[in-house]
Structures are given as C-alpha cells and as structure tokens.
Amino acid sequence: MVAELSGRGGPDGTFRRRGRAAAGGPSGPSGTFRRDRAGRRARWRRAAAAVAAGAVPCLAFPAPALWWLAYVALVPWMLLLRSAPTGRRAALEGWLGGAGFIVAVHHWLLPSLHVFLVPLAALLGLLWIPWALLVRELLGGAPAPGRAAAALVLVPAGWLLSELARSWQGLGGPWGLLGASQWQVPAALRLASVGGVWLVSLLVVAVNCAVVLVVAVPGARVTAVASVAGCAVLTGAVWLWLPRPEVTGALRVAVVQPGLVDGADGGEHRFAVEERLTADLAGTRPGLVVWGESSVGADLSARPDLSRRLAELSARVGAPLLVNVDARRSDRPGIYKSSVLVGPQGPTGDRYDKMRLVPFGEYIPARSLLGWATSVGKAAGEDRMRGAGPVVMDLPGGTRIGPLVCFESAFPDMSRHLAGEGAGVLVAQSSTSTFQHSWAPAQHASLAALRAAETGRPMVHSTLTGVSAVFGPSGERIGRELPTSASTAAVYEVPLARGTTPFVRFGNWPGGASLAVLVLYCAARGARAVRAARSAPAPSAPPARTARG
Q1: Separation between Cα atoms, residue 426 and residue 418, nearest integer Å
Q2: Is the peptide bond before 220 cis (omega within 30 degrees of 0)?
Q3: pTM across the whole model
C-alpha cells in the first residue's frame, strides 16, 4: 500500500494520474463539480422553458385572440418533452408546462385568489404528466412511420384526457379548453356541432403533433403531411355535407347592460339604472328582456316593491323580463343565484337556481381546511346554495328558453341538456365586473359561440358590465357586442332553429373514443411486456465452487 501511494512498486503512471486527480484535473473533484453545476443550470433552463412553453397557448384565447397560433402553440413544449433525457424529466416538464398554462389562461384570477392561484396551478398541472410521457415515448428519438402514426392519434387523446379531468367542476371547470380558442372560426364551429369543443381540441393537438414531426423527424414527414391533409378533408366533409340548423323564425331579445356601478348602495343604484334602460325599450317590441347576473339584490318575495316595479316594466315594454336574483331566500335557508321570469302580473313562478358554483368565488371547497383563503383574496365569505336541476321556461309566444348563470356557460353538457329538453334559445346571465379590465370578459363571451354551435340553438350572453354578445344557431355573431365600457340596452333579432346536432344526440363521443384508444394502447404495452418477460432467457446458474482443503 505504501509503495502504491508513493509511486513505488506500481506503474509509473499511477502516481501521475492520481496526482492530476488530486490537483483537480478533468476527472477530479473540480471537474466533477463543474459538470454538476453545468447540469444543474441546464435543468433549470429546461424547467423555465417548460413553464414558458406551457403558457404560449394562452395567446390564442381572447383578448389577444390569435386563434391561428393554437395550431403551433404546443410545438415548443412538445419539442422540449421529446428531448427529455428520462421519463422522470418529461413528467416534471409536463407538470411545469401545465402549471404555466393554467396561470397564463387564468391570470385574471389573481385579484381574487392572489398567491393561491400558484398552488392551484401546481395541482392542475399534474394532469398533463401522462400526456408528457406519451409525447416523449411516441415522438422521442427518430420514430418510425408506424410510431409516428400512432402518435398522431394517441398524443391528442392524451391531451383530451387532461382536459376532461380538469373539466370537473370541483377542479375549476372547463375554462381554457384548447378547442375554445377557435370560437370565431366557422369551420371549427361546424366540427363543434359534431363532437363539441372536445373534437376541436383533438384536431388542434393533432396539427401541433404533425408540425413537430415535420420539424424534428424527417423520416415521418410524409405521415405528418398525410395526417394534416386528413384533418382538412374531415373538416371539409363536415362543412359541405353536415346539415345546417334550419331557421324557423326569430325572437327579438333585448339585453340590458347597466355598466359598472360602485358605492355602498350599488345594488339599489344598479336596479335604478336597469329600470331606466329597460323603460327606454318601450316601442321596440321585444319578445324577451334579459338582465345580467346578480341584477336584483333582494329576494322578490321579501321585497314586493321590487316585484311590482319589475311587473310594471314588463307591462310597459310588452315582454317578460328574465332577471337574476342574488339574495338570501325567504322560503328556505341560504343564498341562491336564481334566474326568475317576471311578467306583467309579477314573477311567473319559473325559477332556475344556479347549480354549478365558482370555486372560491361562490363557495370554498373544504371550507374547514381552506377557509383561510378569505383572508388573502376575494373568496366567498359564505357558500352559495346549489339548485336542484335545470329548468326550461316558456315564453308567451311559445318559444322556450334555457337559462344558465355565468360560469355554467363553460360546461358543454349543461347547454346540451337544455337543448335536448326543448329549449329554443339558451340564455346566460353573467357578471365579470371583478375582472373588468382583464381578458376574462372577452373569454367568457366567446364561450357562448361554442355552446350555440354545439347545440344548434342561439345563445344570448347578457352581462352587468360587458362583454354582452349574441350568437346564432351556427355560432355566428348576431349584431354588435356590448363592450365593457357600455351602459346601454340593445335589441337583437335572434334566429330560431330546429333540428338536432350530432353533439346533442351523441354527447362527448370524442372523449369516450380517446379513453378507449388509450386503454387499448396501455393494454398492448402490457401484453408486449408480458411476452418479453416470458421469452427472455433464464439467467444461467453461477459456476459451482468447491472448497479446497
């Protein structure tokens, strides 16, 4: 040992090599430290790139509304994931990108949630981990044409799985679905009538996947181009051959938007403004007048004076009023948000209580654990109560309307159910005054176009402070929208239509199909793993050792 350490008794190079290592040569501690530091920097750069890449798709939504960006917005994120050195790294970058997407699309919630938005985004970001692993496995390296073709099906299906999971109301609901960015593209709206916003999301992710193959995998470019051509043919076939909603008449609908009202007596002042704007509609012959969410701040049974004033307004304009009462009810405990139809004789008895409430805004999930959120943001001090079920209301002329309240217009299943129950017009009463100068009002209004296209029924989106908008049965805009700066009433000639769209008839079949192909893929992978384990040669026995005396 002494001879080896001193250089004697061993090869001459032994001492010199160890001397260089001790002095901090390339294979010594200093070199290892530099490599570790460079590796950490690279990992941090990739992590930051994942967050930024995940945030890019937010620009496709209103207010920027760069709808065309959605078809390439996932490419930077997917290129990063396919180059991840390990599955664990891909999972991390999928999680970080998903969190970045949630923060970017919902950044306007910061005034209400403050820092709580970050842990919420971190929780929801976990839903993108399976998709990230699919991207790495199917697009990583140099995939053969068969694997590339599988990626064009499975990667969009994996993305849709994350959208379906976070569409659960308890996780915040289906806000910011990628397909919703295409609300102003007629061809995409036609696809929505077939498979809802879900089918549009699948198409958008498939195009992103094809772009990644074209950019990064030269051997799969033919497959990628063929898939894009197939998407174009599918869209063209739907555009040409799918029957359009058959217009059968029109309903004149007046939207009353009072604008931003502040002050301690804001509820009474708002009611007075709405009353004045509605009175100005006399002579315009509307068939329905719609007020926004929380347009009435007291229960009408407890305030007969407000009920009488609304009845007088209805008689004056010659149409029923659909108001929204946000108050503690006199006939049962708790605060409800309710759409109430009022005619010349007063409330007609038609009432819809909001069913799906906004997490933290209208109730706090697990309040006993998360009630502290009220101290750091504008979270609900008291939970609102939920309604029992959807309601379809009958207007005097025979038209039936299906009311939704604010956040509920984000849920495709709710408008689908109302259309299936015979609603001829969908009406969403909303208020985004808390987020007045953000992207939220425009994002919210755009959802009405998708719900109209999905159901083949026109939709009226009436708000307190804008953006108010009306869309026809194909999702096309009717008339002008009322911006957040407007305090006015406007009358729209809303086309009525009949017929049933494939989405109303079959529901979210793209979600079911995506889940089915992912299950088949996992089953095939499992079967291959079992066969490989069975066919692997058994390990040879170690040579016998004999003891020698």
Answers
A1: 8
A2: no
A3: 0.89
507 three-state secondary structure: coil
Rounded to an integer, what distance in angstroms lies between the CA atom of residue 160 and that of residue 131? Answer: 9
Q: Cis check for the bond before 467: say yes or no (omega within 30 of 0).
A: yes
At which residue do the structure tokens 């307004």 appear?
313
Question: Does the N-terminal peptide bond of residue 50 adopt cis geometry, omega within 30 degrees of 0?
Answer: no
Q: What is the dihedral of CA 117, 123, 129, 132, to 10 degrees?
A: 0
Closest CA to 473 of 248, 179, 254, 321: 248
Higher local confidence (pLDDT), 111 or 500: 500
235 is written with which tokens? 């869209």
Contact 429, 448 (CB under 8 A): no
Amino acid of residue 419? A
Do 473 and 386 contact (CB within 8 A), yes or no? no
Pick the closest to residue 445 from 184, 66, 160, 109 (CA basis): 184
pLDDT at residue number 91: 97
Q: How many of the other CB atoms lie within 10 Å of CB of 389?
A: 8
Q: Tell me, what's the pLDDT at 375?
A: 59
pLDDT at 532: 84
Q: Which of 69, 68, 66, 98 is nearest to 81 (CA)?
A: 98
Both structure tokens of 103: 């923060």
Going by C-alpha positions, the residue among 524, 548, 529 that lies closest to residue 146 is 524
In the block, which residue shows the tokens 């074209």? 214
